[in-house]
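Hi Prof. W.,

I finally got the LysR family transcriptional regulator prediction working! I wasn't sure whether to trim anything, so I left the full sequence exactly as given:
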Amino acid sequence: MAAPLDLDQLQSFCAIADCGSFTEAARRVNKTQSAVSMQIKRLEERIGQPLLSRDGRSVSLTQQGDVLYAKARRMLRINAEIADHFSDRDLAGSIRFGVPDDYAVRLLPVILSSFQRTHPRIAVDVSCVASEHLLAGMRSGRHDLIVFTQGTEQNFGELFRTERMFWVASHGGQAMATDPLPLAGGPSLLHLAP
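And this is what came out:
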């Protein structure tokens, strides 16, 4: 039977995939950049496949890296659940959480209230901004956790929900017959192709 994969190496690998940078990943996992590079080298040797594609300063996942990322995320989550279950310590600290405005008003008060009851020693710093700013904030380390709805990218974080979009117009209305169709929306609509 093969030796188990090193969770510490997987954590560094996922940090690189999340932020696209060895330097930022090293900061997130509290290691030197050379230590993280060595972990990735050993992980690639263990897997027998290249996992990351390096192009100058940018880093992206190879096809095999993409497969490993999804599975590694599950392993790290299960490991955290086991450690949390058997821990007798209360969690304490702070989380920098980012969410788009459209979720903040309706859902955030209920979620934060419930979270505060179960984790009273964790301070949550919330930023309500557009999704493209949340993605940039996650990459730069300004956010620890985000929910985003626009500007989705492959190999970034974990998809936990998708929603279908609908066009809605009134019966007998003239809006749908207008060409071009006039729209009002936030900054993310500016990125839509005609």
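The radius of gyration is 21 Å. Does that look reasonable to you?

Thanks,
D.
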